[in-house]
Amino acid sequence: MAVLVTGGAGYIGSHTVAALLERGEDIVVVDSLQQGHRSAVLGGKLYVGDLRDADFLEGVFAENDIDAVIHFAANSLVGESMKDPGKYYHNNVYGTLCLLEAMNRHQVGKIVFSSTAATYGEPENVPIGEHDRTLPTNAYGETKLAMEKMMKWFDIAHGIKYISLRYFNAAGAHESGRIGEDHQPETHLIPIVLQAALGQRPHISVFGEDYDTPDGTCIRDYIHVSDLAEAHVLAVGRLRGGAESAVYNLGNGQGFSVKQVIDIAREVTGRDIPSVVEPRRSGDPAVLVASSERARTELGWNPTRNKLEDIILSAWKWHSSNPQGYDD
Ligand code: UFG
């Protein structure tokens, strides 16, 4: 039996494919390659196409003996989603509908879903628990919440079991050095800081230092991408064991401010990283930190790459040896 990984050529998808390959899993990857990179897929069978293309997706399910799906394929830029929500509803929500309908037709009853802390919006509690209110402050988070809800109704009607993994801030790169983070355009803090360290940008812009936090900059919970990947492997195993549908937060439980991230990157790289304070970026909550207790107890998830220094060092190794990202 094979695991279908949609978006398996993307940042978190490719690290999950690597983790599945290490377990000897048979893998089928579907990716449009609009954001993903062919060379990020370290193994398995790659189909290049769009989930919304019914004939294409039908062929993927017909040609392979798939028993579980891990669903990453989606647009994921908060800022872009505010300017073009239609793109997010079409690709994320309609794409997921096409996928669930194909799964139902082919009696594939297990899906692990790539969700986000953006489903919570401005948090009620710190750290955030899975039962906390979900009130997204951006269209991206709203589409991810809609995708989760769609899965709930497909479970009730058709028995498709889902595990939704709500990530906090993914960072770092695979220890082999073969895969890492390469977004075009790049909007995430750690890769941008490292691009500044490499001299590819004149400085890092700090978006706001007037938040209600100790140093005035936003606090986030950074989690190593390979630890996230492990959680997907565990989630597939749990669904194969007959588990009910569930939602889990995935984070470190420890928050770091933008200024702390920049300071640690200066230490790790030994480079001078100039920073400039700029106005707040719209839609940024002040503090996002996860409680991942449920994932630890129920999934048996045990993230091991917890130190932010080590996470940034693994990203630095990737960025300094691949300053232009993937060749393709
Ligand atoms: N930041 C800067 N300068 C930059 C880039 C980012 O100061 O050049 C700040 C942001 O304002 C934010 C923090 O660094 O306070 C982290 O920003 P990222 O863009 O790296 O990450 P986000 O927390 O905004 O977003 C991440 C994921 C989203 C997801 C969100 C959920 O990238 O997909 O977490 O919380 F929706």
SSE topology:
Blueprint: E1 2-6, H1 11-22, E2 26-31, E3 45-48, H2 54-63, E4 66-71, H3 78-83, H4 85-105, E5 110-116, H5 139-158, E6 161-167, E7 169-171, H6 189-197, E8 204-207, E9 219-220, E10 222-224, H7 225-240, E11 246-250, E12 256-257, H8 258-269, E13 275-278, E14 287-288, H9 293-299, H10 308-321
Parallel strand pairs: 1-2, 1-4, 2-3, 4-5, 5-6, 6-11, 7-10, 8-13, 9-14
Antiparallel strand pairs: 9-12
Helix pairs in contact: 1-7, 2-4, 4-5, 6-8, 6-10, 8-10
The structure holds uridine-5'-diphosphate-4-deoxy-4-fluoro-alpha-D-galactose.
Task: Write a compact overview of the structure shown.
This protein has 328 residues and is an alpha/beta fold. Helix content is 39%, strand content 18%.
Structure report:
The chain is α/β, with parallel strands linked by helices. It folds into two domains: 2-171 and 223-250, Rossmann fold; 189-220 and 253-321, UDP-galactose 4-epimerase, domain 1. Helices cover 39% and strands 18% of the residues. It contains ten helices and 14 strands. The protein has helices at 11-22, 54-63, 78-83, 85-105, 139-158, 189-197, 225-240, 258-269, 293-299, 308-321; strands at residues 2-6, 26-31, 45-48, 66-71, 110-116, 161-167, 169-171, 204-207, 219-220, 222-224, 246-250, 256-257, 275-278, 287-288. The strands form four sheets. A seven-stranded parallel beta sheet has the order 3-2-1-4-5-6-11, with helices on both faces. A three-stranded mixed beta sheet has the order 12-9-14. It has a two-stranded parallel ribbon with strand order 7-10. Helix 4 (85-105) packs parallel to helix 5 (139-158). The longest helix has 21 residues, at 85-105. Bound molecules: uridine-5'-diphosphate-4-deoxy-4-fluoro-alpha-D-galactose. Uridine-5'-diphosphate-4-deoxy-4-fluoro-alpha-D-galactose is lined by residues 76, 78, 116-118, 140-141, 169, 187-189, 192, 204-207, 218, 220, 258, 281, 284, 288.
